[in-house]
Amino acid sequence: MSPANATSDPWRFGETMTAIDESEYQYATENYMGWCKECKEFTRDCTEPDAKGYDCPKCEQLTVIGAEDALLTGEITFRG
Ligand SMILES: [Zn+2]
Question: pTM of the full predicted structure?
């Protein structure tokens, strides 16, 4: 957290995180949408917020996790 090396993203592991709007996250949790770690977007319906390893309808890999879990594990973060 040194200001000497400050960028727009202070997290060193930030390159794997995707920034989304908080409203988008809330919509996703309310509608049980699943986040795909490969596609870097919400691709799946009927996904519990704490789901892990669900199938992605887009890339067909077992890379979908629940919205809440995506936030907790640092897959997504809130924009600005
Ligand atoms: Zn996918």
Answer: 0.80
